[in-house]
Recover the amino acids of this structure.
């Protein structure tokens, strides 16, 4: 086959060759998984795009802020925001200590994440389409962020850090967060229920000292909006309203992080498992700021 | 050369808007996919060699922005581009209605293709979007196609393809 033959048919060869390369990449990546490093080109593209993304998001937020601060309710909005941020971080701290106390009462020592530090970050972009639930934050490997770190907010668990283009490599000034409701995000979970002799405190419903672990396990997987609990054995005593928290297995999410609340329990005629849906505690449509949990010993710059 | 540079920069600007302003302004079921629309329109203006090179790059960019494994959107977008090219050759695609119909039709194909590819290559974790999103999304893509048609036509005027 001469070069002229190829040149004459470049309009056929080039698309087919590119399609073959694309398919090859796809097959290679699905076989190898996320273990490899991100290519310098991908890293550069993500890095370059993170600046205009941050600029546009900050500008849009600034326009909204201008309205709220100076036209709509001068002063009240900033105070409200400050208090909300403070409440968010205090709620998280509070829950962490209560979980710690509950664990100590049960005689469990050596928590996986004692002394984890929280690094605040701002969401600067969301995934381009809603099939995938990924958010980009304005912190990267230069701030101490690594692949697999859990991301939380005051309400509960947001997701975990992933690398660019499905790899483990985090760009220096931005990072992608795989949200809990993405189908690729799975978390080993336990269910808790309010003990019969306890009255919930409406101000702080999540309190491990008055919630009892039901010993029912499952694995949460996102479906774009909700969490689906898989591998819950048929006949398990799961009820709507039960709290779903991370079990600590798997090594990504420490035990006790709040994931969601059971919203529906279905019993199929034939299956061996229960069909359980949970509503995430975090509102992924309105979330703006998150905190990345960094293990003790890892530097925060 | 200038045309190509303008096109690349415009594509990057659209990608930034897609990931920042669009999620702030529109509900998820109504969000158009700018890069998808541009790729369908490239099928009207460019010959397969140039068009598929651009489509490859834009698919790769989409993979990066979506956090998916590299290749998923490359394959999807190349198939969409080739389908747009072929369909535009079969039907009269100069009228606004025909272009809108082409974008809407290919939106449905894109949805199915992404679902299929992610089911095959993501270890069973198929991306799923509620089926009822399909229609409003196809409509918003079609409207966006009408809006982007003229700037692209001006850019590629006297371009490679005559319909």
């Amino acid at each position: 086959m001469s070069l002229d033959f190829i040149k004459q048919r470049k309009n056929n060869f080039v698309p087919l060759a590119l399609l073959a390369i694309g398919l090859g990449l796809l097959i290679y990546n699905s076989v190898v998984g996320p273990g490899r490093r991100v290519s310098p080109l991908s890293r550069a593209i993500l890095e370059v795009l993170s600046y205009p993304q941050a600029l546009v998001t900050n500008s849009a937020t600034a326009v909204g802020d201008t309205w709220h601060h100076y036209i709509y309710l001068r002063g009240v909005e900033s105070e409200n925001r400050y208090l909300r941020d403070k409440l968010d971080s205090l709620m998280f701290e509070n829950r962490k200590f209560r979980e710690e106390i509950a664990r100590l009462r049960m005689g469990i020592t050596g928590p996986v994440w004692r002394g984890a530090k929280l690094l605040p970050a701002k969401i600067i972009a969301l995934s381009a389409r809603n099939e995938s639930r990924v958010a980009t934050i304005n912190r990267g490997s230069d701030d101490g962020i690594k692949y697999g770190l859990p991301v939380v907010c005051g309400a509960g668990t947001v997701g975990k850090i992933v690398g660019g283009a499905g790899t483990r490599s985090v760009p220096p000034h931005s990072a992608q967060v795989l949200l809990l409701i993405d189908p690729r995000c799975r978390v080993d979970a336990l269910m808790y229920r309010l003990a019969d002799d306890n009255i919930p405190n409406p101000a702080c419903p999540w309190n491990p000292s008055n919630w009892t672990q039901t010993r029912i396990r499952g694995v949460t997987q996102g479906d774009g909006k909700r969490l689906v609990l898989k591998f819950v054995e048929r006949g398990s005593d799961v009820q709507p309203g039960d709290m779903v928290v991370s079990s600590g297995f798997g090594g990504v999410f420490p035990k006790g992080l709040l994931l969601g609340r059971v919203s529906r329990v279905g019993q199929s005629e034939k299956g061996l498992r229960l069909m359980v849906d949970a509503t995430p505690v975090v509102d992924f449509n309105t979330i703006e700021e998150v905190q990345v949990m960094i293990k003790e010993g890892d530097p925060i710059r | 050369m200038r045309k190509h540079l303008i096109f690349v920069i415009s594509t990057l600007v659209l990608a930034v808007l897609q990931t920042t302003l669009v999620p702030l302004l529109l509900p998820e079921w109504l969000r158009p996919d700018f890069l998808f629309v541009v790729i369908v329109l490239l099928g009207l203006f460019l010959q397969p060699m140039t068009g598929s090179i651009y489509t490859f790059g834009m698919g790769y960019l989409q993979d990066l922005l979506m956090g998916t494994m590299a290749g998923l959107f490359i394959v999807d977008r190349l198939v969409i581009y080739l389908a747009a090219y072929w369909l535009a050759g079969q039907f009269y695609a100069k009228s606004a209605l025909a272009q809108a119909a082409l974008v809407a039709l290919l939106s449905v194909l894109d949805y199915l293709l992404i679902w299929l590819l992610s089911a095959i290559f993501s270890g069973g974790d198929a991306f799923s979007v509620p089926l009822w999103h399909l229609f409003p999304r196809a409509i918003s893509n079609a409207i966006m196609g009408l809006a982007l048609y003229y700037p692209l036509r001006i850019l590629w005027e006297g371009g490679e393809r005559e319909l």
Notes: The first helix of chain B runs from residue 2 to 19. Chain B touches chain A through 57 residues (CB under 8 Å).
